[in-house]
Amino acid sequence: MLLAIDVGNTNTVLGLFVGDDLVQSWRTKTDSRETADELALKFRALLNESPEITGIALCSTVPAVLREMRTMLTRYYEKVPTIIVEPGIKTGVPVLTDNPKEVGADRIVNSLAAFTLYGGPAIVVDFGTSTNLDVISGKGEFLGGALAPGIEISIEALASRAAQLRKVELVTPRNVIGKNTVEALQSGAIYGFAGQVDGLVDRIVDELGGEVKAVIATGGLAGVVVPESETITHHEPDLTLIGLRLMFERNA
User: Fold this and answer.
1) Fold type of domain 2-84
2) If DSSP codes are grouped into helix, strand and coil, which group holds residue 196?
């Protein structure tokens, strides 16, 4: 049984695979102050009733957590084959950017999963702490993309800078024209970010020559935007976990 671990800036997602099938997953908050021993206690609690782990695949966008994860895996899972997505492992994704080392591991993992599942050219839209649009060529190459502030970050910034505004629940309002402050904020967040993504996707498609095989949404907040987007064609919440499984298979 493979344990896939995706450490993001806000959340850490764990998934258990039996062969190609994701049979269980968990989402916890990412805390850069947690020690290796604290991480081990949390993992053991979640995995208490799970079968024996026979492999681990990890990617992280948080250096402090990655350091403690390395220590935890060495200390508590020493005999379990492990791969960490970082320079030096076989990804199968050529990175055609100015500085490939600065591209986040999660973006490479998502690119591998998207190209394997849907072919290319393709665009991955990852709704997380930031909203990432990653572009994969018809040959499976990572071409680059666009980064924008995430939905929650934007709402929190607005609430902290405007005295009469506040954080609201991220749900679709009754109308685009909000009749009260809460609905107006929800409209701006949901329809505004859907429009932002659609505009960026349209421009990317034009640069690619007018055609992509798939626009895949993933990330914790994708579910609230996907129904309002005109360009997203697929919603795959477990795209990063699937990519980690594929990475492990390439390097096992």
Assistant:
1) Nucleotidyltransferase; domain 5 (3.30.420)
2) helix
